[in-house]
Amino acid sequence: MALEIKDPELAEMFAHGVYFHGHLCPAMPMGLRAGLIARKRLGVERAKSKELMLLSETGTGHLMQCFLDGVMMATGCTYGKGNCQKLYYNKMAFVLIDVVEEKAVRVAVRAEFIKHALEHSPFMKKRQEGIPPEMIEPEIAEAAVNKVLTMPEEELFNISDVYDYHYVYAQEGPPEFCTSCGEVVFGSKARVKKGKIYCIPCSGYKD
Ligand SMILES: [Zn+2]
Ligand SMILES: [Zn+2]
Questions:
Q1: What's the pLDDT at 2?
Q2: How far is the CA of 41 from the centre of ligand 1 (A)?
Q3: Measured by CB atoms within 10 angstroms of the end CB, which terminus of the chain is less buried, N or C?
């Protein structure tokens, strides 16, 4: 089965997304669509730097954590740049903030969709049996992906109105150098012991 993606931006993101994510599954493409929808609602491009902030309500230890990789790909909000934070609610939802315009939108996967998928989706059945996504037959994975890529957005997501949101990034600190290992440690994470500066691992402190 060939995947047909009409929106050229979504098609490009899908290709990069699968490469980045590592396997074919429906949750990552759902994240792509949700991230694109959030960006369109806010009228913003992918984040080049910290003009957007992503507060992801996903967490660990649940079936559909893959969602966040798609949201990161579509919004340009990434862990590395520091404009993505996980809230560990183990929910399939996120808030995307336009830091410059002080606006935000929340997108959540609809409970009805999840309920239906848990009961009827062959891909989800296999996942519930504990089969890792990369071991599921490609035809089954592709069918699940096709479905989430072509479903009307209102059947997949609850999308909030755009609302006011004031977000301030924590200040970045200057570089310091650890007395023990000599490595650089930035700002607020440098620790002082007997008047000397250490990184956290060398300091013996927990944080
Ligand atoms: Zn996945
Ligand atoms: Zn050190």
A1: 61
A2: 25
A3: C
